[in-house]
Amino acid sequence: MTQKKNVTFDDIAKYTNFSKTTISRYFNNPDSLTLKNQEIIAQALVDLDYKENKVARILANGKTEFVGIIVPNLYLHYYSEMLNQILSTYEEFGYKFLVFASNEQEDTERRYIRELLAYKIEGLIILSHTIPSSELSALPIPIVTIEREDRHVCSVNTDNYDGGRQAAALLANHNCDILLHINAPASPEIPAYGRIQGFLDYCEEHRLKHQLILQKMGNTHESIQNHLADILEEIVQTYTGCRKGIFISNDTQANILLNLLYRKYGRLPEDFLLVGFDNSPVSREAVIPISTVGQQIDKLAYEAVSLLVEQMNERKKRRPVLLEEPIHKVIPPILFERETTG
Predict the structure, then answer these.
(1) What is the pTM of this model?
(2) What is the DSSP secondary-structure string of 318-331?
(3) Rounded to an integer, what distance in angstroms lies between the CA atom of residue 120 and that of residue 66?
């Protein structure tokens, strides 16, 4: 069998009676052509069974169709599920992803960004918290962040404040004597701080007895388990005989706390009610399905990629109109009541 000849720009030009320059503009700057001419060339590509040479196109126009992603870790189920949802957008948007986990190390994250820029990424999605948005906004590519400080860059976040209120309301509706919120210390500029403030405001408005337990947990299973074991012992000793409603900052930690309760009592005691945050898979797969304030992770991922693609496409135009102010999108949470508040 003879090998099929690759279709070239010259072949397309002859087929359409356009110049090779016009064909090149179709691939590299389509907005410079009329819609009618774009349609003629697009139909020619179908007729000729054109197979694009990606490497040649990258060399010609410098557009790699790569997007960088930086996550703080993949231990928390929220980040792994978010990454899964972002990667699934390839079918719709056609962008590939280069992923780095920074482990919350600022110098490491800066090195990763330099490496990503060397790969000629067209945009960057950041979930880590180490580098301020003022510094990120100076990068020569569009940036979209998810659930982190975002004053100077575009972002997509959950309405964490509403989520905190929903968690407190659920526990209050189950007649808890004391409501507790376990979280890490956070700056008010971090979207997740809204979980703390929403919980506090609801408790104070309804004059509910409550306590905040703010403590850095680390990002390994061993570290989180040790900290939560100490917190659990303190709760048991302080609130003996009370019906305890515990709102914990994410599902991974909620699952660890649930396991600690099972090891201690062989079950989930009736005087412990538990609510997590995220609706990551672990909340459904736990030994007892965990009630949780669900971030719509699929929507967060889709909106982040969509917002980034809009900016990247705009920059490919002959006369791009860049954003004057960052765009901030907020996605409402959804409460899922399961057996830990049953």
Answers:
(1) 0.80
(2) SS----SS--EEEE
(3) 7
